[in-house]
Design goal:
The protein is mainly alpha-helical. It has 2 domains: 58 residues, Orthogonal Bundle (Arc Repressor Mutant, subunit A), CATH 1.10.10.60; 118 residues, Tetracycline Repressor, domain 2, CATH 1.10.357.10. 78% of the residues lie in helices and 0% in strands. The chain contains 9 helices and no strands. The longest helix has 27 residues. The radius of gyration is 19 Å and the shape is elongated.
Length: 192
């Protein structure tokens, strides 16, 4: 009688996500994915679907876990400007210490232009980040922790766009100090 092997889909998705993170969607072969997941291709098709469906699950998992972590981190803040500073420093740590950069940003440049399903997931992720930072910025403006502008939307866009630039800079130059200095400069501007 054949032995039934219990399939841990969450663990398999996590392992597949690592492959996509390192190789990108186009660079990840089915063999790479199934070897990392410890299953054969027919098991993948029977449980999750094809490569694209697996990638969708991976990018959803990635963005949802970041969202959950951010919601917990900023649940009980005492100072909006300190929370923004914490967010910026967290982004710097992520950019300079995650060996494969941000999966969402990598996916944006590789797939979001042509793939509406991926674009929708990334748009939702970006909207969450935008609204989180906007809420903090508006609170900081209201209590005069930020005085450089009263345009919270513009300032939020400015902060978020810095992250993308820092990712690009770090990928090209691998210079942690460079990213850290840009982040500290942004924080100084916000605290003026």
């Amino acid at each position: 009688m054949p032995k039934n092997v219990k399939f841990d889909e969450q663990l398999a998705i996590s392992k597949a996500m690592d492959v996509f993170w390192k190789k990108g969607y186009s660079g990840a072969s089915m063999r790479d994915l199934t070897e990392a997941m410890g299953i054969n291709s027919s098991s993948l098709y029977n449980t999750i679907g094809d490569k694209h469906q697996l990638f969708v699950k991976c990018i959803k998992n990635y963005t949802e876990s970041r969202r959950d972590a951010a919601e917990k981190q900023f649940q009980n803040i005492s100072s909006p400007i300190h929370a923004i500073e914490q967010f910026i420093n967290g982004a710097v740590h992520s950019i300079t210490n995650e060996p494969n950069s941000c999966l969402a940003i990598k996916t944006t440049f590789e797939m979001a232009i042509d793939d509406s399903e991926i674009q929708k997931i990334l748009r939702s992720d970006n909207s969450f980040t935008y609204n989180l930072i906007l809420d903090l910025v508006e609170k900081a403006i209201a209590i005069k922790e930020i005085r450089i502008t009263d345009d919270g939307e513009m300032l939020t866009n400015y902060i978020i766009n810095n992250f993308t630039g820092w990712h690009e800079s770090f990928i090209i130059y691998q210079d942690k100090l460079r990213i850290s200095k840009m982040a500290q400069f942004l924080i100084q501007i916000l605290k003026q």
